[in-house]
Amino acid sequence: MFEANLKETAMIDDPDLDEPDFEEPDFDNLDFEEPAFVPSALDDTSKLEPGVVELWMAWVDSEEDTFARLEATLSEDELERAAEKDGDQRRRFITTRGILRELLASYAGVLPTELAFEYSEYGKPKVFTASGDGPYFNVSHSGDLALFAFSSDQEVGVDVEEVRARARLDEIAEKYFSPAEAEMVAGLMDEERDSLFASYWTRKEALYKAIGTGIANRPGTVDLSGMAVDGAEVSCPSDGGEDESWYVRDIEVEDGFRAALCCRNRPAELHCKDAFYD
Hints:
With about 280 residues, this protein is of the alpha+beta class. It has helices at about 65-70, 75-85, 85-110, 170-175, 180-185, 190-210, and strands at about 40, 50-60, 115-120, 125-130, 130-135, 135-140, 145-150, 155-160, 230-235, 245-250, 255-265, 270-275. The strands form three sheets. It has a five-stranded mixed sheet with strand order 1-12-2-7-6, with helices on one face. Strand 4 (about 125-130) and strand 5 (about 130-135) form a beta hairpin.
């Protein structure tokens, strides 16, 4: 999730997940209308074509040898950030960053250790290699599930959240959602309420992560409550005050989670893959 200083909205990850049951891959049928995750190996990663957005899903509860390999790819700065976290949160951070490096390296044609990151004023990362810029990307994780988005030609934002009961949910909704969204959440009970909250939150986070500000800096400025199944183009004020158009849609992931993607334009194709890390 976007790293803003939001202690009151921090979502503690503590799931107990079963291994996903994936069907056999069918790469010929990966299109935008049915973005279902299918198994794929890392060496299937190819050059990102213009207009294409690729999503990767990964479980980050890795075995010790895999964890050690991923940890070895991180920079000193990333290891220092990991050291500030405890227990499972530290392992998830390291595993997610390691997978991100391996995926980015595969796209860029370099080693994971040859990547360098630069961060914007609000903390959004950009990747570089010795030969120039890497692809646009964004990453989110909740519990043991991580989601990665990549594009060659446009900004992307992605968010995934576990559906579960959260303290002070109505208060958070009133602060960060539009009035219509907050009212919809308040009108439901229990699981339905938790599910709708997660859907709205991921849409908001994906949008503001694509923009590069994070939800903390743009509370309640856009209403996404009436979004169609195949997504919607929304207008959002830029830092300069001018309206900009963005495309937002829900992404179907594992049961018990909600996810969303945002990018500058509707993708010509959306490729959804799974990265296996035992």
